[in-house]
Write a structure and sequence with these properties.
Layout (H helix, E strand, L loop, with lengths): L1 H19 L5 E5 L31 E4 L7 E6 L13 E9 L5 E6 L9 E12 L5 E6 L9 E3 L7 E7 L2 E10 L6 E8 L5 E9 L1 H10 L3 H7 L2 E8 L12 E6 L1 E13 L10 H23 L7
Antiparallel strand pairs: 1-15, 2-5, 3-4, 4-15, 5-14, 6-11, 6-15, 7-8, 7-14, 9-10, 11-12, 12-13
Helix pairs in contact: 1-4
Length: 312
């Protein structure tokens, strides 16, 4: 009887967990898979792997630069890893190199093929700085209706060794974290949550996680509170001014921009309406997994206790 009650409790918890996220969804997912589109060592220009992007040429990766600046390069390379706890969706990544003068920009971008009525958007990307001189900024962002949004992940050197992190709006730093993303082999998971889209006040929250911090947070749940209390880097900002519209397609784009002489690698680019959408377990999901594990133990013990007779 006890195990039957637990099964019922698990079923109720499943409904709560699933129902709580029923209105959310993973909108964009680019894991750079060689089994679909990309080939290691070749440019991604003109290619269109992943999901959630526009059909036709507008959904292909495009490389450009402002003015007379040289076009950046974007080449498929071996995929990044945050360790066994982080699930990847492809085996490759993209390595991007810029050589852009101060005040100019280089772009790697493609148009989104999805929109959202949600006022809350989450983005995440695996990121590694390979090398580079001080750059004013480098970023991955969603460009809302061709305006300058709160950039999803920004690395601002500010003249110091390594690369810090900041939230930026219209190329102005709003909030910068004190730590440094190093030039080297360390991989970070960069996350941003933007709320208040479609209103006069937009709030952006930014987090940078090491592999160890990801493992810790996987046990706690990826709530904004847990992220802010357990991350190597965190920043937040409130922007009150012109309204940032809801995510729409067209004309919104995934935009990777850079400045300076720098090379970095990105992988597992995801855009969703919740932390769970982009692969970050929430407490309800973790609780459900815990109940399931508990049921397995109880069932095993009962079978041992009654000699394996499951008919009682």
């Amino acid at each position: 009887m006890i195990h039957k009650r637990l099964v019922c409790a698990a079923a109720v918890l499943f409904v709560v967990a699933a129902g709580g996220g029923a209105q959310a969804s993973l909108l964009v997912d680019e894991g750079f898979s060689s089994s679909v589109t990309y080939t290691s060592g070749t440019s991604i220009s003109g290619l269109n792997g992943g999901t959630g992007f526009a059909t036709g040429t507008s959904g292909n990766w495009a490389l450009s630069a402002s003015g007379t600046q040289p076009t950046p390069t974007a080449v498929a390379v071996a995929g990044l890893s945050l360790g066994p706890d982080y699930v990847t969706h492809g085996d490759l990544a993209v390595q991007i190199s810029f050589s852009i003068a101060s005040g100019q920009n280089g772009y790697v971008q493609r148009q989104l093929g999805v929109g959202s009525t949600s006022s809350e958007i989450w983005t995440s990307v695996l990121f590694k700085v390979n090398n580079g001189t001080d750059a004013n900024y480098r970023a991955t962002s969603i460009e809302f209706n061709s305006s300058s949004p709160l950039l999803a992940v920004v690395h601002n050197s500010n003249g110091a060794a390594g690369h810090g992190a900041a939230l930026v709006y219209n190329a102005a730093v709003i909030d910068a974290g004190p730590n440094r993303i190093d030039d080297g082999n360390n991989v970070y998971l960069l996350i941003q949550r933007v709320t208040g889209l479609g209103t006069a006040t937009t709030i952006g929250q930014y987090w940078a996680l090491t592999a160890g911090e990801y493992t810790t947070l996987k046990g706690l749940g990826f709530t904004p509170t847990n992220l802010s209390g357990n991350c190597w880097q965190t920043a937040s900002a409130t922007y009150s001014g012109s309204t940032l519209p809801l995510l729409a397609s067209p004309p919104d784009s995934l935009l990777i921009r850079g400045r300076g002489t720098v090379t970095w690698t990105e992988d597992e680019i995801r855009i969703g309406e919740s932390a769970l959408d982009i692969g970050l377990p929430e407490p309800a999901t973790l609780a459900l997994l815990g109940v399931g594990a508990g049921l397995s133990v109880i069932r095993h013990r009962r079978r041992r206790g009654d000699g394996g007779n499951s008919g009682q």
